[in-house]
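pipeline stage [seq->struct] | target=High-affinity branched-chain amino acid transport ATP-binding protein LivF | organism=Geodia barretti | residues=247
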Amino acid sequence: MILTVDDLTVAYGSVVAVRNLSFGAEEGKILSLLGPNGAGKTTTLMAIMGMIPIASGAVRLQSRSIAGARTEDTVRAGMTLTPEGRQIFASLTVAENLILGEAGLSGRDGGRWTRKEVLRTFPILSERLNQDAGTLSGGEQQQLAIARSLLSNPKVLLLDEPSLGLAPQVVDLIFSLIVQLCEHGITVVLVEQNAMRSLEIAHHSVVLSAGRKVFDGSASALRSSDDLMKAYLAIQPAGRSPETQGG
C-alpha cells in the first residue's frame, strides 16, 4: 500500500469525528471514500494531510510516517489535496494560479507534471491562461484546481467532492480525467457525493458512518450488491421504490 491509515481517531474538542479508522490505498488505484453527510470523510482527508490534528493513530506514505507532519511537508513527501469548493484564487489569472501551484517546491526533484504537461491534459486551461480564474465555469475551475494540485507531482491525490455543483456532462469529463490520472500511476482517494459514479471508476471502497468504518472492500462488490448499497449508502435498487413510499 502506498498510503496506510491505521487506527486513526480525530476529535473536535470532546466530539469524536473519526474513530479507529484503518484503510490502505494501492499505488495507481482509485479508492472511493463514501458515506452520508457528517460521516467524517472530509475530516479524514484533512487529518491525513496534516491540516487538522489527530488524536491518535498512524498515517504512512510509502512506509514513511507522516502523522503530525506539517501540510507543506506532506505535500513534499508526495501527497496533496484538492479541497471541496475548489478554493482557487478568483482574482488571479489561470496562469498565476498555476504558478502558485509550483510555489515552495523548488527543492523537490522534477516530475512528470510540468505546466506544459498539465496544460496538455487540461487543454481548456491553455485557452484561459490570461483570464481571471473567478470568471471560469464551474467545470473549468475544477480542472484548474486539480491541475494546480498536480504541479506538486503527487504520488497520492486526495479529491474532495470534485463533481459538486457541476452539470452532468462536466461530471463525465472530470471523472474521465480522474481515470487518466490513475493510468499515469497516481493513487487517488476520492470523496464524492455521487456514490454510484464514484464506484464506477473506483477499484476499492471504504464506507464511513458516524465516523466509523462500516465497509472496506472492492468497489465492484459494493456496487453490485443491492443489499450493501441500501444498507450503507441508502441507495435503493434500480427499478424499486423506497420502502417509505407508496401504499
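stage status: PASS
auto-comment: The domain at 3-86+153-233 is CATH 3.40.50.300 (Rossmann fold). The two ends are 49 Å apart (CA to CA).
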